[in-house]
Amino acid sequence: GWNCHQFHPKSEFYADFGDYDVTLDLPERYRGHVGATGHRVEEEVADGRVRERYVQEGVHDFAWTADPRYRVYEESFDPDRDVPPELRRELVDLLGLTPEEARLRPVTLRLLLQPQHAPQARAHFDAVKIGLAELGLRLGAYPYPTLTLVDPALGAG
Length: 157
Known about the structure:
The chain is 22% helix and 34% strand. By secondary structure, the chain is of the alpha+beta class. Strand 3 and strand 4 form a beta hairpin. Helix 2 packs parallel to helix 3. The longest helix has 19 residues, at 121-139. The protein is globular and about 60 Å long.
């Protein structure tokens, strides 16, 4: 049965996992400046509007953001390229991992930055790649094909 604990403000909210298929309908000025849970599978522009469809299975929640000022960057996390061999060897030995347990998956990284923070893009990508490598080897591979990093505007809620 379900064990539904009460809400505690200093902990994660209670919710189950679900599959999301969401279409956002926005003014066209937001085209290319949207981030959302999952990966975009469809985009349609008509009559001054943009419709973007995002799909993701097995997630805890769905979130999205849009800001026409975002500078959008995309890179990939490639485990063969981005996991330092010495880190892999160290953690495989330390944790007693099999080669299969130490195998990480590629991840598409999307970064949405405020224009004044554009010079920080490289640092953001480097940090998330280190996190995917370290945490992936210690806890298991990141389970989704896309990871979106968002730098919201000051005062955004």
